[in-house]
Design brief:
The protein has 2 domains: 95 residues, 2-Layer Sandwich (Beta-Lactamase); 244 residues, P-loop containing nucleotide triphosphate hydrolases (Rossmann fold). Helix 8 links the parallel strand 10 and strand 11. Helices cover 37% and strands 24% of the residues. Helix 8 packs across helix 10 and helix 10 packs antiparallel against helix 11. The protein contains 15 helices and 13 strands. It has 355 residues and is of the alpha/beta class. It is globular. The strands form 2 sheets. A 7-stranded mixed sheet has the order 9-8-10-11-7-12-13, sandwiched between helices. A 6-stranded antiparallel sheet has the order 3-2-1-6-5-4.
Amino acid sequence: MTFEELMDYAISRNCSDVHITQGTNLAMRRFGELHILDERPTPEEAQDMIYTILTPEEIARVEAGEDVDVGRMIDNGIRIRANVYHQRNNLACSIRLLMAEIPEFEALGLPEILKSLATAKNGLILVTGPTGSGKTTTLSAIVDYINKNEAKHVITIEDPIEYIYPHNRAMIHQREVGRDVGSFAYALNSALREDPDIILVGEMRDFETISAAITAAETGHLVLSTLHTQSAAQTINRIIDGSPIEMQATIRSQFAASIRGVISQQLLPTSDGNGRVLTHEIMVGTSAIKSLIIEDKIQMIPGAIASAGQVGMHTLNNDLQRLVSMGLITRKTAIDASYDPNELEKMIGITNYSF
């Protein structure tokens, strides 16, 4: 099997990830579940597959023992994101298959409130969730909406670049960490001198990047980014607790002033087993939410979200209850995904669903 045949096979089966490892079988992730294939390439064939997506410079880095992240357009028009690494003295590669086109809000099941957030003049919008929850796709849909509707200058800082945005109403410059710029934090600070309206930061990995992103949001820019957190409350705690102790009061105040919204999401298997559906929690930076952040009453955030549906907010349990009632996911899937399963069980009640 060639690399092209492997990609065609994965795409035809709606797989999200492909794993190639010297000395073992190929594997694919479909609708969140990993499948080990019967196909077992030789070490040489596996290396050839992996090297197909690398430049000579990247191959040299791999052979020097480095891990390499790349974003590529492959022959069939699909973009991929790949990480090449070593394990047990063998070469391995994890490949994420990206959608051929950036999907619109409706196709992803994103709420209308995100359109309002996307047109804000400044502030911070965070998309959070575990690995593989579709954070990049949601961010891309937001940028694509801006591109089609707003005459703005957008700078993206990514590692690696995943979706490519053609200029539409907006002008979009995309910078890749490790290729166009040294780090997220450096690129953020540099972006402030490049006349941006909107800055997308692929991931806020450290305090330096978090601090620079909040500063950019405070100084009149709309900043979009991601974190690996499962709820709005957890996101707030991660940002503040991840700051140096002497800076936490300042970061708390700055974050409260700049936050526009937090979208915490997961991708869950559908009840029929033939796909996945997006579930999310939406927190909007209202004056009530900002006050709770400043007063360090983060434990009250879920209650504030649940009671503010009129402004577009809802908790994860609210959305899981909706998906169960529509028959899109099973009760077990919902309860397993919830960060407060006892509350969700009460919300769902004891009704017996046919699925």
